[in-house]
Amino acid sequence: MAGRVVYFSGEFVPEREARVSIFDCALMYGDMAFEMTRTFDGRSFKLREHLERLYGSLRLLEIDCGLTIDEMEEQTQLTLEKNQATEEEGMDWWIMHDVSRGPLPVYGSLWPEGVKPTVTISTWPLITHMGPFAEKYTRGVDIVVPAQQALPAHLIDAKAKTRSRMHYKLAELQGQRIGEGSWPVMFDPDGFMAEGPGWNIFLVHEGAISTPEPRNILQGVSRATVLELAAEEGIPLVERNLGRYEALQADEIFCTSTSYCIVHGRSFEGQVVGDGQRGPVVERLTEAWRQRVGVDMIQQAHDYAAALPAWLENEQQANRSALAEA
Ligand SMILES: Cc1ncc(COP(=O)(O)O)c(C=O)c1O
User: Fold this and answer.
1) Interval 110-152: pLDDT, tens
2) Which CATH number fits domain 5-125: 3.30.470.10, 1.20.120.1200, 3.50.50.60, 3.40.50.300?
3) What is the DSSP letter of 217?
4) Cα–Cα distance measured from residue 140 to residue 227, given in angstroms and rounded to the nearest whole number
5) Best mutation site among 50, 98, 257, 297 for ligand 1, i.e. most ligand atoms within 8 A of its Cβ?
6) What is the CATH number of domain 134-299?
7) What is the pTM of this model?
8) Beta bridge partners of residue 85, listed in sequence order
């Protein structure tokens, strides 16, 4: 809470008052498209690309959210501006868009004014996401293969970012059973590597990068950034079918996602990748990313880790006071 507001279907409301109905299609079917964008130094990074993906997901789901993409961008900017004042300078933000087609029509009589899509834009200080992540930049992540497969595009197309995420959750649970804290990379039914439940994967072999071709995956905005940065750095990169064999030959493996950008794989299926440390290609891409966004995201995560206990204490105190006054 702490003074933050949320864009909620046309108005700005305090975070705790932004409530989605139990009859909403999002709850009934997981029928909702969403996006997660982050800021660097207070400015959204590739917001337009995230919104284009959101509108692509909405076209697949046949949802008209009632806002043009330009209006959605404008409201996003407004939400961010309204909330930035609640934090000290230097805080970066997680921006979340969630769009469902609204309450299920069978319960429509509860909304005599008419059923409308549920559209929310919220922003959250990145400290709670990135503080706990900081040590992973140093240690790397252990990647495992869960039993859960990626869904092929002809069943449900992973290119749309939707809240129907049960298969991702199952992959995560299976990953935890294989090894606490490990990251599951799903393979598609053809036996090719696809993606993790919230990240894309890359292998490096003899200085060249390969990544699963985009048939059965979410085409990550960070994945696209790696493609751009690799081209700028003159690092060869191919999109192709990859399996366990290729992963086990890799000198480096890395994962990408919007919040942390890039993190190295320490092991794959229990075998150490290279020497287990962040390798030269990940190092180069990380540096190029820092230059592009003007923020050292690794240092920032460590700073957030140090500041997190006090931030949480303040936040809880502010929320207790606000609730007492209410
Ligand atoms: C299934 C899946 N794959 C990949 C990604 C990475 O996408 P991006 O780089 O746009 O965050 C995500 C992000 O949440 C995801 O949910």
Assistant:
1) 999 999 999 999 999 999 999 999 999 999 999 999 999 999 9
2) 3.30.470.10
3) S
4) 21
5) 257
6) 3.20.10.10
7) 0.96
8) none
